[in-house]
Amino acid sequence: MDKDSEVASKYISDDNAEIELKQGSQSNTSSPEETSPTPPPAASPTSPVPDGGLNAWLQVLGGWVVLAASWGLVNTFGAYQTYYQTVMLTSESASTISWIGSLQACLLLLGGLVSGPLFDAGYFTPTMIGGLLLICFGMFMTSLCSTYWQVLLAQGVCVGIGMGLTFLPATAIQSQYFAKRRAFAMGVAGTGSPVGGIIFPIIFSHLLPKIGFGWTTRVIAFIIL
Fold it and tell me: Apex CA 56: angle with CA 50 and CA 198, to 5°?
């Protein structure tokens, strides 16, 4: 009887040892997974947009000046048309003279087909310089004109092409310097258009009787330059 109990207790101890061995092996195999270090969180990419600063607000100022020189001049054409109808181009009808301003505005908008790809390709500065020089050159040539076709080519075509080269880049550059305040910055730059449309007609009407058409137009060109 004692011998049988000893054998039974031996089997029980062996079974307990096997169970403990299996549990130990399972804990050993699962421990590397539990103790493996978690990977560090991916660093969030930093935004390259400065969203302010001196350089960013200088872009807004530059855009303001360009919009005053482009849409501001388009809004000034009413003063020019009055002079053309009453003094310089009296033989032409009002609808014929209005084609000068219409062509100017049309080329301003169509110029984005050229200035947009140039801006995307990184030619912002050459495009702006070329456009502003064309505006000034066209205004200087307008001051020397005496016939309808001369005015159409100088003020309508040359100035219009220059406006088309400058308008879109001057507007799009704001988005590269502002993120949260982008709408505000573009709105501030956009105020150059109505301000130019107010100032240039006043200059034209005040200087025209004093220094004549030629020098009045040259003064406006010098202001743009």
Answer: 145
